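RECORD TYPE: inverse folding
INPUT: structure tokens
STRUCTURE:
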């Protein structure tokens, strides 16, 4: 579709005899003054840079303007939007699925798959293949393949589609791989249960095993193999598919099924894996003769010996209890046949000896191995000795094991640790944990619990405290949450054993260690109860600074049976007295503890304790606290209602005059809101008054915090009003405090920078601000990400926008509608249809209140970038379905859909002027009339019809956009003199409402085409590069481009270069400058 459109553009340009270059018809208007409104309109009204122009091939990016008022110049005629042929639909679907797959997230692929089906795309077998292949590549290891089977069933149910060899191969491989995972997991669970002993893992592992066995992956793989036979494509399956299926069947000993599969390999070249699977199979069922026949067939089929097949023969001999033949194979046959010897066949024989209690033979073999033993050589011997409870012999083998790579020998290490515990040697078991840690392993939850409890059971409770710390250190943070219940039990065992007063310091140490597993505020009640009971035995003055918070949390978390409300109050106040005697700074004590204890006193109506607590921590009285809270909220309410004078009065009369300090949070919000509203005098007065009150009424620590958040808020106010000089003053004050602005303040600075006269590359500014905030480890906010993603979207920087959108999840920030609007806008402007559709559908599932912006974005995409009226109207219908009221900009887009997308329907476009009034109560605006003018004058070249719309529209106010559309029509139809007359009418009849240069750009284009360079130069010199200059028309990149083109069209290269040099001084984005520089031909 894109190439078709390009050809039409060329045809349209060439049809105008006087048009030597593409015309510029991108129309903009001034951005709103209020930054808060600006951000809202960025999301709601699609402040789009993708403004359609007859000069599309120029690729010039101007600063974005308010798209709500923006009349979009029309595209050149395009072909009628016929439904896509199935072949094209399939190609698009496959491209979208591949794009989602490249994100590396299975969820993204499935979301895109669901979207395509919902949108009615024609999906082929290849589309399903992409989705299934994504599961193969991205499925989390250890997870079932249920979803793959559902997709396959869906494919099979299609009337005109049958699964071919490629999909069947993929499914069989996946099911075989999953079966191997299941068998390994079952074996691991059984070993864990054996080690647990009295520390039973309960019935859960049995349930897990039952669930795994019920998956029936091998049966499903066989069923699909039979499907390939029925479909006549079994011969197209690759050899590795047969081999994988034979391998899992051999593991289950399913001879008939394996022979059924093998029978379909006739005429197919067999590999060593084929023969190894068949030899293993018959060895497992005790048929050594059949195994030998397949081995003979293998030797006859190749002169290249394979260790894998010889190892399978060794296993077959062992399963048939022919160990002598197995040894002969390893020691004589393999060397004589030139087979490379590995530890694998030796280890198989060692396992056989150990399983049959022939330990001497196992140890003798390990001494005479032709290769160096590895951990799998010593492992079976160690496990066997552990089962025999042979501690000394196990220790000797363990020492040898440590000399090998033990990174995959966790089971053997754990077995030895359990043996040590059974023999009352917890210290040795703990040393095993150290050995695990050095090898990158960690103890499982049951073993961790066993070790600590063994210390206690052997009278080593004090040592158990350090052991618990070592184990917590050895367990990764990811595994710690799973281990916590057993570690809590181990901790309580230690604490219960430490029942003497002199052991209380160790009891506290246990509680502190457990805070690395569970935050103190969520301290398990079992630990809290023991801590409370043990604390009654000690003198409070023996406590140190780090003990007090732990005890307070224990009091807060203890069960009522251990600590009633009276005891709670007395214990808390006793601790406060002890803190005073030790000169512990109460002002710096954790505020969350102070608040929670006070709340507890108030809930139980313990007024005496509450008063004592107030006095201890210098908390305002209840009456004062109530007054302050009420007054602070009233201040915020007054500011939000726009009654600034009332806010100042409340602050003065209800707080300052009463010697109180306002609550920091409501004042923070009041100051920021007043600043956003443009009431900087009010914001400044509230800031100064609150700062003085904080210094007078609060202790140093709380005053510093309150002043910081107030200063951060006043910075936000000045930044959002574009007063960067004053914002910088408060930025420096915050840095002087040893702090940095928060995420919202950085975002506000970015909004302020956009209003600065020197700013020309907002996307680069956004990334600079982002990098600084990240460097200072400022926790970002949703607002912070919204602003930055919006800036990146305007610059069509899709990759960083998507990266930051994904990064929000890392900080557990939930994207809101503004976020989705911004990131969808980025996708639309960058032309990424797949990402735009995926994110739009994801947005619909959030359950948040939907906004108009993303709908407008999608409608706009299918009008301007990928013209398809049917798709555009589908998104409008979606908007109606969600009962969202269309905006004036939505109607503008609908008018474009009929005016600017072929087949043109100018009558329906006119009818929309009535519809918007009578259906949605929206009055037509200049942008709607401008769109009709473009439809008549540019698309249909009907200047008189355009003139009628112009005459009708200019009866209103703020008609700059209508004048712009009419001038573009006249210039595009070679009526420059009439365009000049319209320009004079505009200048005499109305004051231009914006500093945008797009009307002047039209004249520059017309003058250049006519060779009227003196007029073009005079007009260009009358414009300015200074945004702050009153009533100035500010040059944009397109202005420089228009002037350079005028010079180049008239062979005035040196003057074109001079304008290019002037443009380079403006610090526009490099890509923009480079694009225009390419016009200057030497």
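DESIGNED SEQUENCE:
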């Amino acid at each position: 579709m894109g190439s078709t459109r390009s050809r039409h553009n060329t045809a349209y340009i060439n049809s105008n005899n006087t048009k030597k270059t593409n015309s510029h018809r991108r129309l903009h208007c001034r951005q709103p003054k209020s930054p808060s409104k600006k951000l809202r309109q960025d999301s709601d009204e699609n402040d789009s840079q993708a403004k359609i122009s007859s000069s599309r091939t120029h690729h010039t990016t101007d600063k974005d303007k308010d798209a709500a008022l923006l009349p979009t110049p029309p595209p050149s005629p395009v072909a009628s939007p016929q439904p896509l042929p199935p072949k094209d639909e399939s190609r698009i679907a496959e491209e979208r699925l591949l794009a989602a797959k490249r994100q590396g997230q299975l969820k993204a692929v499935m979301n895109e798959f669901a979207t395509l089906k919902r949108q009615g795309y024609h999906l082929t077998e290849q589309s399903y293949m992409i989705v299934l292949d994504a599961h193969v590549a991205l499925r989390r290891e250890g997870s079932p393949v249920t979803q793959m089977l559902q997709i396959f069933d869906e494919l099979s149910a299609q009337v005109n589609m049958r699964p071919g060899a490629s999909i069947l191969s993929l499914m069989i491989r996946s099911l075989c791989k999953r079966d191997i995972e299941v068998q390994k997991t079952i074996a691991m669970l059984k070993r864990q249960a054996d080690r647990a002993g009295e520390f039973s893992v309960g019935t859960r592992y049995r349930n897990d095993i039952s669930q795994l066995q019920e998956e029936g992956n091998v049966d499903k793989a066989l069923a699909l193999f039979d499907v390939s036979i029925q479909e006549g494509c079994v011969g197209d399956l690759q050899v590795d598919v047969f081999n994988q299926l034979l391998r899992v069947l051999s593991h289950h000993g399913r001879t008939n099924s394996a022979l059924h599969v093998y029978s379909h390999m006739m005429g197919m070249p067999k590999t060593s894996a084929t023969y190894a699977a068949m030899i293993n199979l018959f060895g497992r069922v005790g048929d050594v003769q059949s195994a030998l026949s397949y081995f003979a067939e293998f030797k006859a089929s190749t002169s290249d010996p394979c260790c894998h097949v010889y190892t399978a023969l060794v296993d077959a001999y062992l399963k048939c209890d022919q160990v002598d033949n197995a040894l002969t194979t390893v020691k004589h046959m393999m060397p004589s046949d030139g087979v490379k010897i590995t530890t694998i066949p030796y280890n198989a024989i060692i396992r056989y000896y150990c399983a049959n209690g022939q330990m001497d033979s196992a140890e003798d073999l390990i001494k005479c191995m032709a290769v160096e033993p590895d951990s799998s050589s010593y492992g079976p011997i160690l496990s066997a000795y552990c089962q025999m409870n042979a501690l000394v012999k196990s220790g000797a083998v363990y020492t040898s094991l440590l000399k090998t790579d033990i990174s995959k020998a966790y089971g053997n290490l754990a077995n030895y640790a359990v043996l040590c515990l059974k023999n009352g040697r917890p210290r040795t078991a703990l040393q095993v944990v150290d050995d695990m840690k050095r090898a990158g392993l960690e103890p499982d939850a049951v073993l961790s619990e066993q070790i600590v409890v063994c210390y206690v059971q052997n009278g080593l409770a004090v040592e158990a405290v350090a052991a618990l710390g070592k184990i917590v250190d050895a367990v990764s943070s990811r595994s710690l949450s799973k281990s916590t219940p057993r570690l809590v039990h181990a901790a309580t065992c230690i604490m219960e054993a430490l029942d003497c007063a002199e052991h209380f310091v160790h009891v506290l140490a246990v509680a502190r260690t457990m805070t690395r597993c569970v935050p103190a505020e969520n301290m398990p009640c079992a630990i809290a109860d023991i801590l409370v009971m043990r604390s009654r035995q000690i003198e409070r003055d023996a406590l140190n600074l780090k003990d007090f918070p732990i005890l307070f949390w224990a009091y807060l978390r203890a069960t009522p049976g251990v600590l009633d409300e009276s005891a709670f109050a007395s214990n808390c106040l006793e601790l406060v007295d002890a803190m005073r005697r030790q000169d512990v700074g109460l002002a710096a004590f954790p505020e969350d503890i102070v608040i929670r204890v006070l709340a507890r006193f108030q809930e139980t109506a313990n007024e005496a304790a509450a008063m004592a607590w107030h006095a201890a921590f210098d908390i305002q009285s209840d009456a004062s606290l109530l007054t302050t809270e009420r007054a602070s909220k009233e201040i915020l309410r007054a500011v939000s209602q726009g009654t600034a004078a009332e806010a100042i009065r409340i602050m003065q009369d209800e707080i300052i005059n009463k010697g109180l300090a306002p609550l920091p949070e409501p004042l923070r919000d009041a100051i920021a809101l007043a600043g956003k509203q443009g009431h900087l005098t009010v914001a400044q007065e509230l800031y100064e008054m609150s700062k003085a009150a904080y210094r007078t009424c609060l202790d140093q620590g709380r005053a510093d915090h309150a002043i910081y958040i107030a200063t951060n808020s006043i910075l936000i106010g000045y930044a959002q009003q574009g007063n960067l000089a004053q914002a910088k003053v408060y930025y420096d004050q915050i840095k002087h405090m040893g702090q940095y602005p928060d995420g919202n303040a950085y975002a506000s600075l970015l909004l302020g920078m956009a209003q600065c006269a020197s700013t020309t590359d907002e996307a680069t500014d956004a990334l600079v601000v982002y990098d600084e905030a990240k460097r200072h480890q400022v926790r970002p906010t949703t607002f912070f990400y919204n602003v930055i993603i919006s800036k990146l979207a305007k610059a069509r920087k899709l990759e960083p926008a998507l990266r930051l959108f994904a990064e929000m999840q890392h900080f557990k920030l939930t994207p809101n509608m503004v976020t989705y609007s911004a990131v969808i806008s980025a996708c639309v402007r960058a032309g990424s249809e797949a990402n735009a559709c995926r994110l739009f559908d994801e947005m619909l599932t959030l359950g948040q209140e939907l906004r108009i912006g993303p709908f407008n974005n999608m409608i706009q995409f299918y009008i301007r970038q990928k013209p398809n009226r049917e798709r555009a109207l589908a998104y409008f219908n979606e908007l109606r379905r969600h009962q969202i009221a269309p905006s004036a900009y939505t109607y503008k887009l609908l008018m474009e859909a009929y005016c600017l997308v072929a087949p043109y329907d100018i009558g329906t476009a006119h009818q929309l002027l009535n519809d918007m009034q009578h259906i949605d109560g929206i009055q037509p605006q200049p942008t709607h009339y401008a769109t009709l003018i473009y439809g008549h004058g540019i698309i249909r070249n009907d200047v008189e019809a355009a003139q009628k719309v112009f005459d009708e529209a200019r009866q209103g106010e703020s008609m700059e956009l209508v004048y712009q559309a009419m001038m573009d029509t006249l210039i595009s139809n070679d009526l420059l003199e009439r365009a000049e007359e319209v320009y004079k009418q505009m200048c005499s009849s109305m004051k231009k409402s914006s500093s945008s240069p797009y009307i002047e750009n039209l004249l520059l284009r017309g003058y250049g085409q006519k060779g009227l360079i003196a007029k073009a130069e005079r007009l260009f010199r009358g414009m300015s590069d200074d945004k702050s200059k009153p009533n100035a028309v500010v040059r944009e990149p397109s202005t420089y481009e228009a002037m350079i083109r005028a010079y180049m069209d008239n062979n005035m290269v040196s003057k074109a270069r001079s304008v290019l040099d002037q443009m380079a001084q403006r610090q526009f984005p490099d890509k923009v400058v480079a694009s225009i520089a390419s016009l200057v031909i030497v």
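NOTES: The chain has 55 helices and no strands.
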